[in-house]
C-alpha cells in the first residue's frame, strides 16, 4: 500500500471530548509514517489517538480478565507476542496483548492509529506500555499519574493485511522500569478519573486472600508459635498498609537448615505457572536425600523488591547464615534479588527448569530441525572444557540461525549458572536434576492444586508437613537399626555401608553394581594425570574420566559428584583399577552420613558462648533435637525425660551454689 493512501489521524480538542479519560496534559507521541517521515502532530495528542478505535476497544478497556484472542498459536499458557502472529481483527490482537500485559504486570495504552484514505478502514495501530513518553513538570497537576512516565519503549505494532487479518509487525519486549502489576489496573481504571476507585482496587495478595483467609492465616501462625516458640513468621506491607508478601518457617525448618544449609532452592514454579495461591517453598535436602521445607512464602507480585524482602527475611530467620549455593529458576528479577542478598553465594539454575522451557521458547526450532536437540545435548552434556562448550555452542547457533534468538542468547549469557561444564566443584545436593520425576516440582504434585483455595492450601500444607516429618523419622529409624545388605565384594561398598545413611547408601550401592556394565580403557597419561575412557553399555555412552594421582582428585564427564554428592560408577571403576582401596575422604560428604546431625565437641562449643542469650538459644536448639529423637518411641521418651529431670536438678544446684557466670 502506498504512503499517499495513508493518513495519521490525531484528535482535535473537540474529538478529545469523545474519548473516555482523554487528558489534555498527556504526552505528545511522535509516530513515523511508512516512509520514515514523522507525521504532523499537535500538542493535544493523547494516549489513544483515534476516537473510533477507542470505541471499538471499549469492551476490552473495562475488563480485567480478557480471554486470549484466537491467533495461530496454541491455547493454554499465555504466549509472548511474536513478529508475524496473525489475528482475525484488531480487537483480537489488542485483547491478546492486553492479556499478555496482565500476565507480565504492566499497563498498556494506544499511542497511535492510522487508517486508509481510500477505504477509511484502520490499517495500523501501535499499543505501548503505559509508561511511554516523558514526564512533564507541572505545578497544576491535581492527580499525579499512578504510572509515571519513564520513556519506556516496550510496545506492539500491528498492521492489517490485504486479506483483512491483522499481524504483529514488530514487538519490543524490554521495559526500562521495574515491573509493577498495579500499572495494569491503573491503566484500565485511569480513564474514569476516579482516584478513589483506583485506590480501592485490589492488588497483590488482596487478589488471593479475603478477610477470612487472612484470619485463617494468622490463626495458623499463632498455632505454629504455640507449638514451638522457635517458629518464625513475617509480613511485608505496602504504603497503603496492605499485605504484599508473607513468609513463615517452623522450628523444624530452622533446625534442618543448621545441618543442611549448604544448598537452598527458592522455587517459583507455582507463581510462574499462575497457581491461584502464589506459593514459594524454600527447599533443602536432608541426609536421607529427602526434600525438606526451609521456609514458605506467599508473594503478591513478582518484583525485585518483593524477592529482596523475602530473601532478607528468610536469611534473618536463619540467623544470618548464608548458603553456599542458591538455586532458582532462570529469571531476570530473581537474578537481581540474588545479586543483592546472596552476593557471596554461588547462584545456579535448576537444570530441569531450563530444559522444560525449550518447547515454550524454541518449539519452532525443535519442530523444524530434528537434529537441534541432539546438537544441544552434545553441547551441554559432552563438553569437557569451557572452550569446547563455547565452540560447540557457536556452531549450533550459527547452523540453526539463532544469533538473534533472545532466549537462546540469554541461556548463553547465563551459562555459568546452569551448564554442567561450569558446575565443577559446585555441590547441588541432587536438586538440579534433568528429569521431572526427580525434580522438586514433582515433590509437590500431590499437595498443590492449581485452583485450590487458601483454606484447602493450609489444610494440605499441614498434612504435607506431617508426612515429611514421618518420612524423616522412618528413615532415621532404618539408618539406626537396619544393617545394610552387601551385594558385592567391593571394598568401597563395605566402607560406605558403615558411613552413609541407608537411603544414600542404596544409591551409592547402585553405582557399585553398575560397574560391571562398564569397560575401562586408558587414553593417555602424563607425569601426574591419567585420562580414561569408560564405555557404559547400560547407558550406551562413553565417559571421559580424569584421575590426578598426586592430588587424589577424580572428575567424570557425567558430573555425578557435583549433582548428587557421591562418586559415580565410572569414577569408582577408575579408582579400583588404579589400586585405590578406600574412597578419598574429600569425596565423602558429611551431610550424607549417619553423623550428619552430630555437632562439634560440646566443650569446644560452650567455650565460645560467653553470653546468657547465646547459651539459652543453644540449649533451645538442643532441646528440639532431644524432643525429636525422644518422641520416636516410649523407651526413648523415658530416657530423654529422665535425662532432662537430672540435668534440671544439677543445673539448679549449680546456680544455687553461687557458681553462675
UniProtKB/TrEMBL annotation:
Name its cellular compartments: Nucleus
InterPro entries per record: FAR1_DNA_bnd_dom, FHY3/FAR1, MULE_transposase_dom, Znf_PMZ, Znf_SWIM
Protein origin, superkingdom: Eukaryota
Instruction: Return the annotated region ranges for Disordered.
Output: 1-42
Segments of skewed composition (Acidic residues)? 24-36
The alphabetized UniProt keywords are: Metal-binding, Nucleus, Zinc, Zinc-finger
Where mainly located? Answer: nucleus
In this chain the SWIM-type domain maps to 543-579
GO BP, one example?
Answer: regulation of DNA-templated transcription
Q: Which GO terms describe its cellular component?
A: nucleus
**Any GO molecular function:** zinc ion binding
Q: Which family is it part of?
A: Belongs to the FHY3/FAR1 family.
Provide the function of this protein. Answer: Putative transcription activator involved in regulating light control of development.
Name the record gives this protein: Protein FAR1-RELATED SEQUENCE
